[in-house]
UniProtKB/TrEMBL annotation:
Entry GO terms, CC: cytoplasm; nucleus
One GO term (biological process): DNA damage response
Keywords per UniProt: Cytoplasm
Species of provenance: Apis cerana (Indian honeybee)
Protein name in the entry: BRCA1-associated ATM activator 1
Subcellular location: Cytoplasm
InterPro entries assigned: ARM-like (IPR011989), ARM-type_fold (IPR016024), BRAT1 (IPR038904)
Protein family: Belongs to the BRAT1 family.
Listed SUPFAM superfamilies: ARM repeat
Amino acid sequence: MIAELCQEIIDLEMKVKALFEACISTKLLSHIHKLLILCLFIPFKRFIREEKTIDAETSQKFYSDLNYISLMLLSKVYIIELVKTNKLLMIYWKKLQSLHKFVFNQEHKFEHQVISLMILPLGLCIRHSYKDYDLFDMFVTKLCDVTCTAVQRLGYNIRNVVLKNDVSVAQISKVVIDILLEITDIMDRDIAVIVFQTLCHVLRNCMPNTHNEIDNKNITTDLEIGPRKTIYKYPLEGDPIIDHPTLLSSLLNGLAVMTEKFKLKWQECVETICLFSLAQELLNHPGASSMICVKALKVCKLAIQNFMPPNLVLLIETDSHMNEIGPTLFKRLHDINWEVRDSVLEVLNTIAVISEDKYPAFQEFLVANEFLQLAVEIARTDNESYVRASALIFISTSIRINKLWNEKLSQFDLSNTAIILFNNESEAIVRKEVVILIKELYIYRKWPKDIIDAMILAMIKAAVLDLHWEVKISALKFWKHVIKSHLSDQGVLDGHFPKVTFSKEHRKIVSLNETEIKRRLNKALDELMKQNCLGVLLITLEDSDFEVCKTSAYITNKLKTFLLKYKLNEPLPALPLPKDSATLDTCYVKYESSDSIANSNCEMLSNSNNIIEEIVHANDANLLISIYKNSMKVDSKTQKSEEKTFQYISCITRQIFLQTIFNLDIDAYIGEKERWLTSYTTSFESVLDDILTMYKQENVNSMDCY
């Protein structure tokens, strides 16, 4: 309403047009430009509010004003501003359409006119002889079909202005791609297809000419009526991969974004079939920078995920491009830039994921090119932690696939390798993936008891002693599968006990009544106690990191619900215990008294008071010896602390565990902890309590508190 009043009272549109014509400041122009576009939509709001159909006169005036703005910007050679005009038109148009659906009485869709003008500067990167390429000819025909004559004429004007004036087509094209990506959220699918096709054709023109001779000579073009000719050069002269890496990077990024968002298929956009080969050609180019290689590898990964060509869709075993990409990826796995190696491993992981169910033919590709043994070597020896982590992800995915395991991975001592990596690794991102690898090995492959015991010990350390929360959570997921495995051994199927099951112990089918189910559950819990799983769950339930607590609470609560379902909280009728039932008398467990803890603290305080005197009276050599001895004491204390933690975990019997979880409202416990973390720790009351506590305590340095 306010905009309409301004239009009626002060003739806002005419005043803004006057400013727009006179304005030469880029900073001011952007604001005037936006206001002018908004003024064009004022009449539409009235029609929408009154729920009337937009008449022909209003729509004609709208198109005339748009033509006026475009020609005015062209007269000043403001190509980027012209593209931004169409971006604003698309945004405001979609906003109005979301409020109320309306259409112009026009033959062509408005969004097609807007997007055609936005992509037009990119068309100037196309070689003249490329017009004979069949797919491009189809694309141009499609654009002509969806655009009106006025837009086509404006397109010729844009071309003429760019070619007559000394402007950087590569720079303009880079900005245009960025602007196009800004409106992907409001693009219809048919608009996205047009943008994707444009980017594909421009990328193909950036490729070095290996198959067809593309005319790179100067092209003469009629830019004026009459005999006079203007000679211009192809704007991406030379090798664009080397000369225009910024444009190429934007192209690859644009294709990746469009692919991830719209998941286009070759049936609706035939250019998708070419994308994989274009990315491969980039990777084979000796002058491609590491940045270009990383982006090309991302496009490869997305192309494999989304753009399977027809022959692979039909599960045909061989594909020329996949056969050719093998040596290329193998070579890039030895690239000096870690980003490239990391990206290659992401591509290989994608191939492994797809080969599991969707395209089994890829399994032979991974085996034939020796990627698995190279990944194991990279996980052991690569200098960069991100690359080692990616290699472990690829190996973890491959473990699930029988062909890859039987023919390659089973030859490596992966269980022992993973445990060694975990014990010696300093980077949390790698330790997390090692834990996941151990989990996959435990789930999908059979192991002797000694190896399982080694895995269990490593996972106890990971869940309880590791300093990074993601490692702990990954370890807890391992324990979740351990619980599931033991319950399955006792006959649990799909989350519940069947009425009858086969007993390995008695070698016959037995009926599962309440007593038998409770006996089996107790046996499973005893086995979990032997592996210290119950202690791990209870100690991680009190972890200092909330995410670890929450994960432990979820697993424990799920187990508690399952046990309550079969009334394990009710007493079991007197029956002889099974031979393999494990118990631990906690009266033999010796805990450290408070006096010994106090004596330990006094000893630490005394040591602290003597530090300054040691530094003053000791020479450099003696000082180094003293520091070394102190560090050895710290290591010894850390080791003792770990031993106490393991001792506590081993003290958790089945009875203690059941008593703890049945008496604890786990949801309330986690909810209270979450409320405390989100409110009390950052609230004014918390700060005030800290200040008052510090004030009341004497002989406390306030700087120690914050």
